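User: What would this chain look like folded?
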Amino acid sequence: MALAVIVYRRASVVAPLDNRAERIMESTQWGAKREAAREAERRRQISVELAVPSDLPSPELWETTQAIYERMSKRADNEALATQQGRKTFVPYTEILPAAQGASLEMVPVPAGEFLMGSPTTQAYRKADEGVPRRVKVSAFWISKVEIPWELYTAFMENGRPRSKAGVLMEVRPDDELWDAVTQPTAPYTAMNLGMGHGYEQGMPAIAMSHYAASKFCEWLSAQTGHYYRLPTEAEWEYACRAGSEAAYCYGDSEEQLDDYAWYWNNSEDRYQKIASKKPNAWGIFDMHGNVAEWTLDTYVDLQSAGQQGQSGMLTDPLVLIPGQPGHVVKGGSWDDDPDRLRCSARQKSRIEWNMQDPQNPKSLWYLTDGGMVGFRVVRPVTLPDIVTVHRLWNSSKGIP
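Assistant: Here's the prediction, encoded as structure tokens.
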């Protein structure tokens, strides 16, 4: 990411600088020096073996990706060494976030495996776009135990720093951390709890963020921890939701037990509810059914019209990513949905109507003024992918509903 530098023209009469101006001048000079040093380092690091693609979604943020990737690579190397030394590393863990005043994030390991993704034609309420079941192989990953709550997301959303509409810092400081350079939202113009509850209540799921904002949160999280976080693919999400079940829900086919596992239209009192206040699935993951629907990485395609319902053979770690095409897959159903939307295989396509009331033109990159039913959770794959893939998955949905 190219840090913004404020340029001053020399005047014929130099007025004394007040404290604020001095601070800005010092930050600017320091920022310019750091920018030059980073550029020199970038040129040294990019070798002929790594040809940077010309179609990167946000080439101006490539430098930030590089800095974070270096941190993630070092941590991945250390953990690989620990595994070689016989220490167990694929276990539940808690991540402490310094930028969120020490709030924590619990991660649950999901073992590699195979499952039937989709729904049989005999399943009640199934929709054609789910396709018929297809055999899918999924690599191991960790997933957040709960939907990302306000106490984590507000630290990202209300960062207290002046930024452009695109999220670029307007002023750099000598004490900036790596995560400060991550593109982040401008301040919301209205309370993004959308009238549900009293402010951003702890323990409530964060809502009404765009797919891009959720992806950039993952980058911000990665910059702090040195672990690679991203949104789950649709396949990873459904695999984690099922937790070994081939039924409509993680526990079976009956709607009678749904109240034990999910907040939805029948019991939510017309608003979101506290995370982890219902039963978890067999793998200890909460709210995969209901409360808030959750973003996935995948671009939405109708599996029936795309002809995928007739595919044979095994799919391995599938991901549908179509740059520039509107619509992403949202899974799990929400407090505002009926039981059919909460099924493991149920899918929704994100819509521009979720940001209809936004008065800005163009619409915000960050907020969904009509998206009070949408939130997300994060995953961390066991294997760190290449840097270009990391960059694409953090940046590909900018400006896409």
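The radius of gyration is 22 Å. If you want, I can go into more detail on any region.
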